[in-house]
Amino acid sequence: MTVPEEARPVLERFAADVGQVLTLVALWAHGSLALGDFQPGRSDLDLVALIGAPVTGTEKQDLQRMHEALAGQEALAENLHCAYVVEAELGDPGREHLTWAHGELFDRIVSPVSRRELRQGDLCLAGGPGPAAVVPVVTDAELKDYIRGDLRDFWYPHTSQADLWLRDIWVDLGLLTFARATVTLAEGRLITKREALEVLPGLGAPADVVRDIYQRRYATAGPMPEDWRATRGYLARSFLSASIGRVLEDQS
C-alpha cells in the first residue's frame, strides 16, 4: 500500500516532530490509510507510533503542544489520531496506551480491529519494522468478540439518543460500522467503508440515507435541508436499532 500524495507532507512532518519529542522506533498506519480507502479532508489519519520508552510527564506536555501546533498549521492534521505504544508493551492487547484523538490526550487500548488493520495493511511510514512482523496475531474469535461488544455496549444504546443522529458523523459511522461488522461477524474479514456502502442496501438500510453518505464521502454534497436532517437521523437510528438487535440475537 502506498501513501496518498495529499497525505505525505503532514505525515512526514508528523514523523519528524514526534522524533523530536520521543524515541520513535516506527510509525504505522491503520484505518483507511492502510486499507486503501483514504479520502483527503474526509478520512481520519489513524496512526500508531511505536516508541522506545514510556512517555514522561514533560514529554506528554510536549506532545500536546506538538499536536496542537500541527493541527493549526496542517489542515489534514485536524483528523490525525495516534496511539503511542511502548515497544516492550506491544504484546499486551489489553494494555491502554497514550493516545491523541479528537483534540486531546488520553489512554485507551489499540482495539482488535485496529491491530488487524495494522497487520493487514502492513503500512510503515517511518522507521521499522513493519506492523505485520511484530504486532501479535488477532484471532477471528477475538475480533468478533470485540465487534459484538462494540455493537452491544456502544452503538445500540446510542440509537435511543435522537439528538446525536442529527450529526453527519453519527449517521456515517453508525451505518458504515454496522455494515463492516456484519461482514466481519459472518466471514471474519475486514472491509473498507466504500465496500460497506455497497453492503448496506442488502442489509435493508434506507436508500436515501446510503445515498446521502456516499455523496458526502465520495462526491460533492449540496446544502442539507433541516427537515431532511431530522428525517435522516430518524431513519438511520431506527434502522440500526432494529438491525443491531437482530444481529445480537442471532449471535447469542
In short:
This protein is α+β, with helices and mostly antiparallel strands and 252 residues long. Helix content is 53%, strand content 14%. The protein contains 10 helices and 6 strands, in the order αβαβαβββαβαααααα.
User: What pattern of helices and strands is seen along the backbone?
Assistant: HEHEHEEEHEHHHHHH
Low-confidence stretches: none
Q: CATH topology of the largest domain, anyone? A: Beta Polymerase, domain 2
Q: How many domains would you count in the coordinates?
A: 2
Query: What spatial form do the alpha-carbon principal axes imply?
Result: globular
CATH C-level label of the largest domain? Alpha Beta
Approximate helicity band: 40-55%
How confident overall, as mean pLDDT?
94
Main-sheet strand order equals 5-4-3-2-1-6
Biggest sheet: strands, sense, closure? 6 strands, mixed
Q: What's the total number of strands? A: 6
Known CATH architecture of the largest domain:
2-Layer Sandwich
Count, helices:
10
Radius of gyration: 19 Å
Strand content: 5-15%
CA-CA gap between termini: 37 Å
| Helix/strand class | alpha+beta
